[in-house]
Structures
1.
Amino acid sequence: MNTHIERFEYDNKIVKQFAYAAAIWGLVGMLAGLLAALQLVYPALNFDFSMTTFGRLRPIHTNAVIFAFVGNGIFMGVYYSLQRLMKARMFSDKLSQIHFWGWQFIIVLAAVTLALGMTTGKEYAELEWPIDILITLIWVVFGINMFGTIIKRRERHLYVAVWFYIATWVTVAMLHIVNSFELPVTLFKSYSWYAGVQDALVQWWYGHNAVAFFLTTPYLGIMYYFIPKAANRPVYSYRLSIIHFWALIFIYIWAGPHHLLYTSLPDWAQSLGTVFSIMLIAPSWGGMINGLLTLRGAWDKVRDDVVLKFMVVAVTAYGMATFEGPMLSLKSVNAISHFTDWTIAHVHVGALGWNGFLTFGILYWLVPKMWQTNLASKKLANWHFWIGTLGIIIYAVPMYWAGWVQSAMWKEFTPEGQLKYQFLDTVTHLRPFYALRSLGGLLFLIGAVMMVVNLWKTIKAGSFLANEAAEAPALAKKVEIHGKEHWHRWIERKPVQMLVLSLVAVAIGGVIEMIPTFLIKNNIPTIESVKPYTALELEGRDIYVREGCYTCHSQMIRPFRSETERYGDYSKAGEFVYDHPFQWGSKRTGPDLAREGTGRNKKMDSWHYNHMADPTSMSPGSIMPKYPWLFTSKVDSDNTHKKLAAMQTLGVPYTDEYVANAKAEVEKQAQVIYESLKKEESGLLLGEEGLQRDHEIIALIAYLQRLGSDLELGKKDTNLSQK
């Protein structure tokens, strides 16, 4: 047996950098979320400024919390634990620094471009194509550094945490690459390669599994390392961890379609999503139980140790969220919850409780250890725990209540069979709930500020250990095995096999769900009356996406009586074949717009003009922001032909002649809307420049008036042919 002891050092500098970044970006992301929440109570906080409207701020908040706060938290935990689990310094200090600074650069680019309205319009994947490429490169750097460390390890077996790190890396790479297929038009403008139903399926395969494999699996790996370390106890069950890992990564990937229940997605795909979502309860709770039972015999320590308090609440929140998620995928429950604030409550129980509290607990454990001192104030940390816990409760409970109230009001009919409430009634009714939600978010933010102050005092009192001395026996090339070895051990000794098997496990579900949707035409039957957007309508749609209108409005009418009575005929798969990207939305803060240009929903051009200038002028009590810049900014029709040519490449049937004459087509349709508005000029809320035919508001009106009109035209043609 090789007993040669090797001496080496762990790199704590990279852990420190990611810890600092997690804390700082956490405050930024939470502050953005608090402002967005307050905007739904006090619309004046949109400041009538393009970069601070809710539609642009919400993606900044979600990206900052997911990829900046949690992302840096992941790397902090992985870089600390991986070195110690592998008994080896990271493969390359230089790659570690490239990873750190590259990731921070991506975050800054994301904040700037999203504030400027440069977005793909796909939730949690809003960043444009150059940033997507940069994300891919930095993720590869992280992968090389991680696998290089694993390969040069001094520990033969891979501990369960490392399994989750490997699965995270390979799955996030797959999700990001597949969902980011887009066709560039300019440096910061592209169109999704997929359209309509197919785009929705790919997006929520990505969106759900971004939660699964960015917000969950790496944090489970971190949980498996830091809870035993903090409690000084072994993991409860090795066998349960095996079941937890393989069942979770295999089942999770199938669950994406449960975000699209009652939509135009084929029923078989919806059913698959529901079935696997229900199955997901078992491995999820297996992990929660494994984490909590690791603390068996240490509950007295939990009572006195603030780190373990944070971790226990985090794992409990994980269990709550992973029970509720499958329940929300039941069609009977989803019919109530979807598009409401119930989903917001569900998401934030996981985000604030699971990701937030586990990150806080790890920071409280790591900082004193790396700075070789005691936590500056245990009392302040305990205050943070209780204020943060209260913040989660005050945030979540009003949002659950708001969701139930929303759904009930949307669906209620009078005894005479008429809808009892206008959509705006629900908006005004919910403002007190939104105010309470803001209070909960404020408390959570205050707790995070207290933590930063506490950690800063700890850092000032300590001495940072940048290179931590360690020693371990060199990895023996051959090991004698005495007795029967568990079958899983051979996988743990082979990281490449672990990588390949993980990729196979996560790829199966996506392949089975997506390939039939793309290849079998019957899944998305075409509708003859559905035509491509005109040049001006396409420009208007791009403005709609830029302003983040999809964050508040859906374009998907479900086959419920309450929705067809309120909005019009339910949505069909063939309606969306030219939509790059799809715009079905996931939350209705405002009404659905799928039939905005048809029937009783159709409004005069002047109504839309005034509504965008001052929403309360047309809808008293509205919480929608004003959009004054649409009345001064001009449509860049010089680039419209590039957009049409890109759509041609994606299969939209524009003729070469139409593309060549794009600018003239824009001006021709704009003139029609301009003349319509000119007739009502005395009633328009005109800005300083007055009514101009080339302003962006004209293009946006063109798009809104187009919504749903193809189906209405198709019905008229059918009626005429029957006569």
Note: The longest helix spans residues 423-461.
2.
Amino acid sequence: MHRRHLLIGGASLFALTGCAAAGAMENGMTGPTAASLSTADEARIARAVLPTTAPRAELLQPWTGPYEGVPPWDKVTAPKMREAILEGIELQRADIAAIANNPDAPTFANTLVAMELVGEPLDRAINVFSVMTSNIGGDAWDVLETELSPILSAASDEITFNEKLFQRIKAVADGAETSGLNAQQTRLAERSRDAFVRNGAALNAAGKAELGRINTALSNAFTGFGQKVVADENTWTVIADEAGLKGLPESNKAAAAAAARTRNVQGWAIVNTRSSVDPFLTFADDRALREQVWKKFVKRGDNGDANDTKSTIAQIVALRQQRARLLGFGNHAEWRMQDTMAKTPAAAMELMQRVWAPAKARVAEEVADMKAIAGFDIEPWDYLYFAEKVRKAKYDLDQNELKPYFELHAVRAASFYMAERLYGFVFKQLPKGAVSTFEPDVTTYEVTDKATGKLIGLYYADDFARPGKRSGAWMTTYRSFSQLTGSKPILASNNNNFVKAEAGQPLLISLDDAETLFHEFGHALHYFSSVVTYPSFGNTPRDFVEYPSQVHEHWVLSRPILDGYMKHVETKQPMPQALVDKIEASSTFNQGYATVSYLSSALVDMDLHTQATPPTDIGAFEKASLDRLGMPKEIVMRHRLPQFNHLFTSDAYSAGYYSYLWSEVMDADTWAYFEESGDVFNPDIGGRFKSIILAPGNTTDRGDAYRQFRGRNPDVAALLKVRGFPTS
């Protein structure tokens, strides 16, 4: 989450701060070229430019304690955070003024390396603040987020719109070729200049004022959208009679009972989040209750009440279109996709449309199979339930057979084994209280390099749902690696929303949940592998960043993982090969549903953000867009617009939800590479994946990096094969 406060106009993390400069003069003195200076020399020159005012607020202080400092979670309160962020903005403002007003000629070190170090106290506070709003939540944090979001947006715009600062950055970038910059410095310089331009630095005064208004309004709308969705997710369906749970595995019954107790209701509670809803829709025999639970889930943000998000979405898309036009783009998608691998909406649409037609055809086949069993037309709340019946009939595979092999702690241990085999990372659990955590349930692990014993970082596992926590699963970094800032240990977390089991009982999760855990862990491994010099290069394009995470899902069912970790919770025996064979035989089963539910969301996202005139009736637009696609009536979008956090809590995934599919092309092709080698833990391939794909961040073009790793462009046929679709 490094440098979140420098987001430009709501752009994704790291969009602004790629910084480098040129020139044979450093700090006004004749000397070596920029390319010949050491990182330590760059940092020394840069820090000499910045003010040395010590922060007063407690939450702005350098982190102390083990691991060269960890977040002081035990000291965090909303009032202290407010004080810290407001002071941090002032300190950041002074940093920027010192760089912009420096009388010396702009150079790599005194301008752009200095920019890498701007606002370090505010960085620390923002990283903690984002965890409190996402993982803890509640009224106090909602109020503070509502207050601070527009202030932070304005502070970001203030940096972008600083004409003196922009001219210094532009001078360095424009002179890169003649001033001795190396390839990485040139890339940093040009990306920084281009990001400033994309985000309004070249506008006139009136344009900047208008863009600032738009960005502030968007910031407010993003905050409001997220809070409304969380409020709708902090609800549940009460099952008063145990008969309503018929068909549900015992582990899910126990979790529903525990959820009811923690919410002080009688009976069983199906919490309005996917990890609770999907098992109910898959196994519960009571069709009327399935419909009730399904409708509650898909209507989040769409109930015509105080938490309805549709008017907020209409405001967001209108503001985005205004911003795109102001910045010289035809629509929001064109603006957002400038710094992606796909580059254009047309390129993303071409890939999606190639997959959409075979996915719909497969849905028709799946529905026919289900209808033959059900004897009636399949509705969306029937799909998972009857798909499970078909799976059992076709492949003699019952999901209930699988769950006893996926106990949460065993799955976590298996992910650590994968990390050690592939990359040499060793995870050691720390005792409770060894470091402060933001919630008592969080478990911490020390991460070291197996070969050298060198400390890599600290890993926080936050697995359980709680009121106020946003839904889904995600990864966060509290401190990322960069040589410029001292190569400190990386601090990263994975966050899930599993419902706690009864006291003393194992928490059994689904195969899908296990793959999600490995996916999010893949994001963490990406950051633990980082060896970038400049913080700006710690993140990659939106349609690349999911690739390293998605590929790690494949190892869940590899034989070494199954034999060592996925053991039956009662018999303690590893999953038998006969059961694995059934899973593999059914691996393309229900891929019509999985692909259409995801891809419809991605296609509607792109449709929404390429409209010449933004829609005002969001419900009508969603329906019309799906009608144009020929959306099967038996399936609903994985994320309907009224609850689509990816799109409307920031700009991060807007016009970018396609990125999962774009990344999956590389992911499928990479897994094929491992499989074809005869060893899914092939040390040579694993080492090259780490050194070429993971470690360099965004220091080189990611398409070039893939070609260096694989020896060619990714093959779309690998993706179609994985999903069981025709390859031609």
Note: The two ends are 41 Å apart (CA to CA).
3.
Amino acid sequence: MKFSEMPYQRLDREETEAAMHSLTQRQKEAPGGEEQFEIHREYYKLNDHIRTCRTLAIIRHDINTADEYYEKEQKFYDEVRPVLENLDNEYHKVLWESPYRSYLEEKIGSVAFKNMELDFKAMDEKLIPLMQEENALASRYSKLIASAEISFNGEICNLSRMGKFMSDTNRDVRRQAWKAVSDYFMSITGEIDNIYDEMVKNRTEQARQLGYENYIPLGYCRMHRNSYGQKEVENFRRQVKEYIVPLATKIHENRRKRLGLEKLSYIDNNMFFADGNPEPEGTPEEILAKGQEMYRELSPETREFFDFMMENELLDVLGRKNKVQGGYMDYLPEFESPFIFANFNGTSGDVDVITHECGHAFQGYLVRKEEIQEYLDITMETAEIHSMAMEYFTEKWMEQFFGSRAEDYRLMHLEDGICFVPYGCMVDEFQHIVYEHPELTPAERKDVWKKLEQEYRPHMNYEDDPFFGNGGWWQRQGHIFQNPFYYIDYCLSTVCALQYKMKMDLNYKEAWESYLALCRISARKFYVPMLEEAGLKNPFADGCIQELVEHFEKLVL
């Protein structure tokens, strides 16, 4: 079914709550494990309906934040979601405490029960008002960013449209574009500070009501960190500082030479070549058509997947006024359909959507017939491997998008991927510091960011910009507001994707088979055993990052 034809009706709150109460009670009274699993199948069906209703409403709201109908629907789900999460928790407690748990664990897996344990540690009915307030704050930030109207070059641009001007070959145009974006953020930085200040206080209060010292352990539970903790993340960041930051610094020096500049400035941050970054050739419609041709050639599985996406209009990728910034993939279970949301802006990022978000969507499509929902409940450090590795698997088709500049794109993509990891770790460490010290003022938070930039991005020179130069960059990073502690997952998965890059350079077919196996494992196994089965190394392990750096510095230096 085409996305535009998918019927939407607001979830009946009373009916849904009653259904959850009924399922919970019946689980308590079930005489055996087989009977409990049959009831659990009914839970799957109800959960699919809840998720489909909510996802349809949120996507349609994100497509146009000025649509009053879907704005009301967004607010409804902001309020009802914590209530349903609590009922879901109560339902799963019955499974957790079941005398037939061994039977259930055999059916839905040990990973599922570990995730239940984390959910119990992260939820209590008394938190519902705070969670509703947290959701409202996140929506407030999202709408504020989506509503940006910046007058530039004779047109009114949102932040996504400004991206093209911020990487213009004319340095004066770049400078003016960055200044326009800086001026816009200066006009709203106080409001963003207030939103985040309320968020930090809110999340800290939730944590303390559950008995935690601060929000970090609660955030880890909510991210389903079922295989590692803060200690492992700190060790990962240490290795990034030791090995990847020096490599990234050399890459930036090479960029400076290629650009013919005496010194890099923040306005050159997105620039890789003096004659401009490679840009995709053709209209958005032509880019999608080329993507379809690429996936038809890559494998039988990707051919079926992308044909399905195109036939059912499951990609909304054009940037528009009042459209939420960024991109994502979500899944509509009742229609067995992935959906890709993005904002094309005429840069190479448009092709990245066709590779990155399609990596997510492909994995969702590949396992769409799986009955056991717990096997689909992948954690983000796994999900992002699917997307980031797909960026590399599709590289040999880049001539279709970039013509004679395909090799430039491949070099830019590799350099950008390596240089991203320090930035991603900086975002993660920033959040750890903020939640360890919730008493920090907005100005002190910006000072924390400035200090971290010296450690992770020593090449950055903000000149005298009043917003970016005073520690404001993080206010553009929506994950900090919407999904605390998510960002490290991009760094972990980049390390895994780079391992796939190494593998495919040696034997593309074997690397692809490994990737398909990883996608199909989904959430059946914990993180490290899953990586081992697919033939990948644990990114937390000492030596993994050093080995990657030694390999890739030969390719980029």
Note: The chain is about 65% helix and 5% strand.
